[in-house]
Write a structure and sequence with these properties.
By secondary structure, the protein is of the alpha/beta class. The protein has one domain: Aminopeptidase (3-Layer(aba) Sandwich), CATH 3.40.630.40. 41% of the residues lie in helices and 15% in strands. It has a 6-stranded mixed sheet with strand order 2-1-3-6-4-5, sandwiched between helices. The longest helix has 29 residues. Bound molecules: zinc ion (ZN). Zinc ion binds next to loops.
């Protein structure tokens, strides 16, 4: 059961809606031939790509290939729901800058940002799924290590994002906070769908999340350094389960922030 009905979260959601200033031109694009229905844009980020391979599994499986396959599956599943529009950060094996991804999501008016990654750890026994939301700085060693492994050498700039206005600052802060309940939902749905070990909801200073103006998370969907999990991740049926879990979280988010509510708040 989601622990997101408490007042603090609702106040946060309310604040988020009030200050949301998305450019919503894409939101009303008729994906199904109808333009009168509010739509929700979901930005699906396939981690890594091109020269940025990401982790390489014990069986040679490459993170950039797994993330792209799961992202593609997720987009395909979500397209069956006519009120959703999906944007993929990449549809092929090519390099895309980390902040470029978030900027694109902001520019297109995405209301959710899901970055798909696969983990790796020096300990071969480590397995399971963890989900990250943004922290201003990575405080513990494990959070620092994962950011370094995921983004080391590929961050365009390590600069802190400086809000351009009070409103921008408020929106960044609200987006960061509302990412926590969204992340919890993503984690719960992934674990329910795959049966993988729940490694928890965490926070780390991921560059790819820093400029996000919407609930944004990094989902680490398994460990390529674990023999059993790497074997599962080779299996298209297992990747489909991961995609289903992600889609389920997106659909359930409607009960927290209904489709069209952001636009309605903006129009007031
Ligand atoms: Zn990664």
């Amino acid at each position: 059961m989601l622990a997101m009905s408490h007042w603090a979260t609702m106040r946060l959601v309310f604040l988020f809606l009030l200050i949301s200033g998305h450019s919503l031109s894409v939101a009303t694009e008729p994906a199904n031939g109808r333009s009168d229905q509010p739509m929700r844009i979901v930005y699906i980020d396939a981690g890594h790509g091109g020269m940025n391979t990401g982790a390489v599994g014990v069986d040679g499986l490459r993170e950039k290939d797994v993330s792209l396959d799961i992202a593609t599956r997720m987009a395909k599943l979500l397209k069956k729901h006519t009120r959703y529009v999906t944007i993929l950060s990449r549809t092929e094996d090519r390099f895309v800058g980390l902040r470029e991804r978030t900027r694109q999501a902001n520019q297109k008016g995405a209301e959710l940002f899901v970055s798909i990654h696969v983990n790796s750890n020096p300990s071969p026994s480590r397995a399971g799924i963890e989900v990250y939301s943004l922290a201003a700085a990575s405080h513990d060693e494990e959070a620092k290590a994962i950011v370094l492994r995921e983004e080391g050498g590929f961050v365009e700039s390590t600069q802190t994002i400086m809000p351009t206005s009070v409103m921008h600052g408020l929106r960044l802060a609200a987006s960061q906070r509302i990412s926590v309940p969204f992340g919890r939902l993503v984690l719960e749905e992934l674990v329910a769908s795959t049966g993988a070990r729940n490694q928890g909801l965490r926070q780390a200073s991921f560059a790819v999340l820093k400029e996000a103006m919407m609930p944004a998370v990094v989902a680490e969907v398994g460990y390529l350094s674990n023999v059993e999990e790497a074997e599962k991740l080779q299996d298209p049926a297992y990747r489909e389960l991961i995609a289903e879990g992600l889609v389920s979280a997106v659909l359930k988010w409607e009960s927290v922030v209904p489709i069209g509510s952001v636009q309605a708040a903006q129009a007031r």
